[in-house]
Design a protein that fits this description.
Structural class: mainly beta
Strand order of the largest sheet: 1-6-2-3-4-5
Strand content: 35-45%
Helix content: 10-25%
Number of strands: 6
């Protein structure tokens, strides 16, 4: 199966992915890890606010809202359409 590497902010509502790695360092990296965004974790975009930012993600059975500014630092693998 082929995968495409994209940033988390590119997921559309209903789309699922697997966390590949984080590009951020420092306190924000730690915060992202603390909310469950660690390597090989499944994540699903549940929806976006009416303005498009932030988005809600299902991570380890918790619904977490993240701004696009922060979710750009999370690279995920999505199944590529063949």
């Amino acid at each position: 199966m082929k995968y495409e590497l994209v940033s988390l902010d590119k997921l559309l509502p209903g789309q699922k992915a697997i966390v590949s790695h984080l590009t951020k360092s420092g306190p924000m990296r730690r915060r992202l890890q603390d909310i469950g965004l660690t390597e090989n974790t499944a994540v699903e975009c549940e929806g976006r606010s009416p303005g498009g930012d932030p988005a809600a993600y299902l991570i380890k059975s918790a619904l977490i809202a993240l701004r696009d500014e922060d979710s750009r630092d999370v690279l995920v693998k999505i199944k590529r359409e063949e």
